Amino acid sequence: MKYILNILVIGIVVLVGYLLIDQPFYADPTKPFQHQIDSLKLESDSLHNANDIIYDSIHILNGEAEMYNDEIIKLNKQLKYERHKTQEMVDLVDAWNDNDLIWFLTNRYQSGLINDSTTKADNKISRQRSN
To answer: Most C-beta atoms within 10 A of its C-beta, which of 33, 85, 97, 117?
Structure first.
């Protein structure tokens, strides 16, 4: 009889333990929301991927902007140099008297030379140095 009572007590303890473990308050509280959690994780992953793509695009655009800035700086230096050279030529022509201008225009159109202004400027500089 004692043997049966022990088996009955063990059976009751196992049944109570099973019922307590299987109760909803011991179940995973996130289980009803698992589908929503999974969809939010998927959306979060897709947003992270889109964010990575945007960061890569920003990096590429920053590199291109840097390249364009370097090109602009280079062109500005060239433009400054050309302005300086042009101003030197203007200053040189401003110093010409009427005879120099007549000689320049006559020789330029008589000989058909288009870039004779540089030759005249060189001649003018040569004459100024020899004086």
So the answer is: 117
| DSSP string computed for 53-70 | HHHHHHHHHHHHHHHHHH
- Answer whether residue 6 is part of any domain: no
- Global pTM exceeds 0.70: no
Yes or no: say if 119 and 113 are a contact pair by the CB < 8 Å rule. Answer: yes
Place of tokens 């140095």: 129
DSSP state of 113: -
Q: How many CB atoms lie within 10 A of CB 78?
A: 10
**Rounded distance between C-alpha atoms, residue 38 and residue 61, angstroms:** 35
Alpha-carbon distance of 56 to 69, in angstroms, equals 20
Confidence of residue 26 (pLDDT cuts 50, 70, 90): low
Domain that holds residue 58: 49-90
